[in-house]
Description:
The protein is mostly helical. Helices cover 65% and strands 3% of the residues.
Amino acid sequence: MSEPYDALIARAREAHLLESTAEILAWDQETMMPPGGVDHRARQLGLLARLAHERRTAPEIAELLARCDAADLPDEAKADVRELRRSFDRSASVPAELVQERSEVTSRAQHAWARAREDSDFASFRPWLERVLSLERNRAACLGVPDGGELWDALAEDYEPGMRAADLAPLFAPLRERLGAFVQELSEVHGPSNRCNEIEFEIDRQEKFVRRIATAIGFDFSRGRIDRSAHPFCGGSHAGDVRITTRFHRDNVGDALGSTMHECGHGIYEQGLPADRVGTPLGTAVSLGIHESQSRLWENHVGRSAGFWRWCADVATEELGSAAAMLSADDWFGSSNVVRPSLIRVEADEATYNLHVVVRFDLERRLVSGDLEVADLPDAWNAAYREVLGVDVPDDRDGCLQDVHWSCGLVGYFPTYTLGTLYAAQFFAAAERDLGDLEEPFACGDFAPLRDWLRQNVHCHGMRYGAEELCRRATGAGLDAEIFLNYLERKLRPLYGVD
Length: 499
Ligand code: ZN
């Protein structure tokens, strides 16, 4: 195309080869590696991370970027250059000593967190969290606070480019108020039974069942694998080799199905990125929020819909055996939509999940600004859970020590989970606007129209557009929390018999 652009892309692809090699090693560590491999694997991953970082921040990259800016490039190439410049500028603005200190401190803080959580001992984690937050504030200052923004914004940019706390506040306020009140209303009536997720099914049968669903919704096993791990995730090296994991409990088939459909959503997105753009921004997912929209769309808008269960109840009987034969489509639909305020985010249902995120966003923003002292976090956490979710937190283990994120230095990350929920609802509504009601095809086990719509409107663009612009192009409007709230109430009010 043009010499500096081609050279820049070749460098990006080389760095991606190193990073994607690390991805496969990380997948192996979680699924296959014997415990004896831990130390050597840490050294392998450390070396690959350093080599990739050196390639991404080499002085010649700055020179190639400058020459690309001066060249007359087509729009797609300009998008590549824009994103490579963004990531180069961010990497280059943080001194190497700070990067190294953060990596060492967070690695030790994670161990301290795991111990503190086990003993429900916040006092022992407190100095670590103070150190991590102080490093994150320094890092934010190096990265630069956007005009009119706050320190938190500079950190969140790593996960959701362009996201500002001030833009999130008006999206999250209706969740706190309207969703909070709705959940309260549901908790006062006798809701559907959770019986489908309490019956014991053999793990081998569950595995065959979820693999059949993964195939039906379009996860391509010739370009991906599903294995088991304690915490389900989506990894892999590129669109041709996507590795997802899931988990099984004898008495909770809903968890296996939900986890599998969730990770398949991430995987189908990765498989749908343009194969000829591997290792370049146009072959890369836009943001964590958009990635999460794809997982939540399949997990919730498909896997918890009445149409899906009209088809899937029979599949469940075929794969899970006679114990499932007594369960009707209505039973399954009901059990997959039980809403119950609880303490633990990762076990939360479709509705209350977002209230857990609302609490974290508020507390995290105050911790970064200095408005909330780390020492006061447990009290603030417990008060917020009482106010927003209506539950009493018995101890810090199931309270402010439950998530690993802050110990890893992942500050600004939590809101992407709920952004994903909101984007998912808006994409799904737009797909139904374009394709008509999707319950009927779902009831026939036909998920291709939805998958193709996502391919054409989301996956194929890679990072060509930012999240907000992608949303406008696909749905005709900017992100709007009302669409999610309306969807949820439309589904749950009749099921709970509240109007
Ligand atoms: Zn996810």
